[in-house]
From TrEMBL:
Residues 1-77 bind DNA. The keyword Chaperone does not apply. Pfam families: BTAD, NB-ARC, TPR_12. The lineage of its organism: Bacteria, Bacillati, Actinomycetota, Actinomycetes, Streptosporangiales. PANTHER family: TRANSCRIPTIONAL REGULATOR REDD, TRANSCRIPTIONAL REGULATOR REDD-RELATED. Keywords: DNA-binding, Transcription, Transcription regulation. Residues 1-77 form the OmpR/PhoB-type domain. This is BTAD domain-containing putative transcriptional regulator.
Amino acid sequence: MDIGPARQRCVLAALLVDVGQIVSTDQLIYRVWAEAPPRRVRNTLHSYLARLRAVVQCPEGDGVTLFRQAGGYVLDAPREQVDLHRFRMLVDQGRDVGDEKRAVRLREALGLWQADVLGGVSGEWVEGMRRQLDEEHLTASLLYQDIQLSHGRHEELLPGLRDLVASHPFDERLAARLMSVLSRCGRQAEALRLYERVRRELAEQLGVDPGPELRARHLEVLSSAPAPARLAAVPALPVPRQLPLAPMEFEGRARELAVLDRMDEQDTNPVLTLVGTGGVGKTYLALHWAHQHLDRFPDGQLYANLRAFNPAGECQEPGTVLRGFLEGLGVEPAAIPADHDARSALYRSLVAGRRLLVVVDDVRDAAHIIPLLPGSPTCVVLITSRNQLAELTVTHGARTLTLDVLPPTEARRMLTRHIGKSRVAAEPEAVTALLEHCAGLPLALGILASRVMTHPEFPLAFLAEELREESSRLDALYVGGPNTDIRAVLTSSYRALDPAAASTLGLLGLAPGPTIGLRTAAALLDLPLPSARKLLRTLEDAHLLHQYVPGRYRMHDLVRLYAIETAERDMPDGEGEVAMRRLVGFFLRGAIAADRLLYPNRLRARLEFPRYDANQPPQDVAEALTWFDTEYSCLLAAQRLTVARGWDPETLQLAWALDTFCWRQVHQRDRIDLWAAGFEAAERLGEPTGRAVAHWRLGYARALAGQRDQVLHFLYSALTLFEEVGDRGSEAHVHQSLGWVLSQRGEQQQALDHAQRASAVYQVLDNPVWEANALNAVAWCLAQLDRHEEAYVHCEQALSLFRTCNDLDGEAATLDSMGYIAHHMSRHGEAIGHYLSAVDLRDATGNASQKVDSLVRLGDVYAARRRRAEARRTWEWAAGLYRSQHRLKDAERVQAKLDALLSPRNERSGGRRRG
C-alpha cells in the first residue's frame, strides 16, 4: 500500500501511535514539523489527512477509519492490527502470566520488531519516538532474557544478546549481562575481551571508566572457575518484608494512586519519585499504595529511610542501607563486600529478575539513591524526596509525581475522619477556619486533629482563634517531637539551602501578594533574570516554591509564614526595607506603563512618579489588560504594604495607576479602598495637587459605585484645590465629573452647565481628545433635556475628533450616546448599529463596565422594534454580566425588563408598547 511521501507517512505514524484517541491539530503539526512548520502548515496538514483518509479507508483497510473530532483527528483501527500496540499488549501479558506463557508472549512480541522502526521518516518527534521504542524493545528483550536465564538457557540467548550489545555499544547493563552469560557458558576469555573492548570505547568515545555494575561483573568473571553449560538451580532466597506499618487514616490522592497503579504495568522504567514539600504526605502515599498492592511483589519488599531532611540531622548513607538490603535478601553479614561498588553490584545481582518493591524514603539527591537502584526492570522503585531529583530523570529515566496540598474537599474529609462527623457538624464555621489555616497540608491537618482529640472538651472555635493569628500559627501547629512540628519540618528544608537561596526565600515571604512573577522576583532580588530564575528553581526543587504556570510562582501559606520568620531572624537590618521599595517601584512603573496604554489621553496628574526603566512594558492594550489581570491582587497588596509602612507618596501613586483598570473592570469596592488610602496619604503629605487629585478620584469612585454620601463635597473640594494651584485642565476634568454625577441625580440643567464649562476650558487648552470628551458629555446632557437634534450634532463633532486621534474608548462612548439619541428619535436601525459598534470597541479596550450598559440600551432598542428574541438574549447577557460584576441593583433592573418582556400580557400583545 503506497502511503505517500515522507511527511505524509509521518502524519500516519503520529496518528498510529495514539490509535483510537484524539490527536490535536497542534500535536500533529509538532510531530511532523517540530519547531519549523511551513507558512500554510494547516492547509498542508489537511491535504495530507485527506489523502491518508482515501488510503486507509479503502476496501483493504479492514475497518480502519480516519475522522475529525472536536480538537483534532482520530485514526480508529483495531489495536491488535497495529504492530506497536500489539507489541505492547504482548509485553504486558508477558509480565503477568506464568513463566512459560510469559516467554511465549515475549517471544511473539519481539518477533514483531523490525530493524528500521519508523523507516523513511524523520524529525524531532520521530527521533524521540525511535528512542522510546528502542527502550521498550530493550526492556522486552531483558524480560525475555530474565525468563530464559532462570531456566538456564544461556546458549540460546547469546545471538540476540550479541546483537543488542552491538546496537547499544555504550549500554553497560547489556555488556554486563552478556559477560555474565558468556561466563556461564564457559567463555570467560570472550567475556574478558568484551569488557576490555567496552572499557576502551567508553574511555575513547565518552572519556569515562566503566561503572560499578560492569566492574563488578569483570571481577566475578576473573574470579570464576569454568562453569558448565547449564548451571545448577539456585537455592531459594528469603522474601524480605521490610515495609513499615501502613497509615491508618488515609484520604484522597485518587489521581496519584492511579498513576502508581499503572507504574509497573506499562512503564518502561518502573522507577518513580514522589516529590513535594515537607508534610505533604509523600511517605503516607507510598506506604498506603505499597500495602494495598503486596500481591504484585511476591518476591518481597525492601524499605529504607535515608533521613536526608531529618530535623535531628541523622542522614543515612547508601552503603549502610545496602547492607540492610543484602541482609534482608539472605546474605550473611560476613559475606557482604566492604567495597560499596561491589556491595551495590551484589545487590543488583540478587534482585535481578525478581518481582520486588523497593521503597526509599526521604532522599537528598540523585547520588543518594543511585547505588540503591536495582538493575532489573522487574523491580519497582518508589522514592520520596523534598527535592526534585531531576538528575535521576535524566540519567535513569525515572518518572516524577509531584504531590500538592489536598484540595478543600479531601482536606475536609481527612479532618472529619480524624475528629468525627459530630464535631464537624457542631461547629461548621470553626471547621472552615481551621481548614483555611492549614491550607490543605496533610501534616498540619494531622497535628490539628491530634490537638482536637487531646482536648475533646475544648470547642473548635478556641483552636481556630489560636490559629487565626499569623504570628503564632506555627507555634499552634506543634504536638511534640520534630516530625510533628511544622516549624521543625520546614527548618530542615531551610537548612539544606545555600545562603543565596535561603535569603531569597525570606524576601519572597515578605513580598506582598499571593503570587509573584519572574520579572517581579528579579526586581525584588535586584538580579538579572537568569540569576533570579536559577534561585527560584532552587526553591522549586526543594518544594518551598511552586511554579504553577510558566514564569509565575506561589508559596504555601505556612511556608510563607516560616519564610517571614527567617527574614526577620536572619536578614541584615534594612535589607528587607530596600527590597520592598524596589518591588513597589517595579509595580508602579509597570502599572503606569500599562495605564497609559489603556488610557493614552488621560490627564497626567502632577504627582511624582518613579522614572520608567527596563520593566519590559506591555506593547498594546491587550498586553496591558493581561498584565493588570495577572498582577492585580499583588498590586492591591503592594498598596496595603505602602500603607502599613507609611510610604505615603507610593500609596497615592498606586491609587492613581490602578484607577483606570479598576473602573473598566468594575472593581468598584477595590477602587474606593485604593482612593480612601490615597486620600489619607495625600492629607498627611499636605501637598495641594495630591490632595486635589485624591478628593476628585475618591468622590468620583464613590459616585460610580452608586454611593451619594459626601460625593459632591469631595468633588467641589477638588475643584477649589485645583483652582488654588492653577491647574485648569484638572478643573475641567472635575467639572466633567460633576456633570456626570448631577446627570445621574436628575439635575440635568446643572449637569449641562458643568459639561459646557469643561468644554470651554478644553477648547482653550487645545487638547482635541479632552474637547471631544466634553462634546460627548454636553451631548448626553442635551439628550436628557430632549434636545436630541442638537445633541446629535455634538456627538458627530466628538466622533470626528476621537477618530482623528484614534481614541477607541472615546469613540465607543460617543457611539453609545449616538445610539441613545437615535433610539429616542425613533431611528432604531441606526441606534442598533451604533450600540453594536460601541460594544465591539469596549471589548477591544477592556471596558467591561460600560460595555454592559451599552448592551442594556441595545436591548431597549430591540424591544422597541418588537424583536423580542434579540431583546431577551441581550438583556440576559447584560444581567449575567452585571451579576458577575457584583452590580446587583443593575442586574435587578434588567431582570425587571426581562420579566415584563416575558409576561403573559406582553406575550398576548406581541410586545406592543404603550404610550
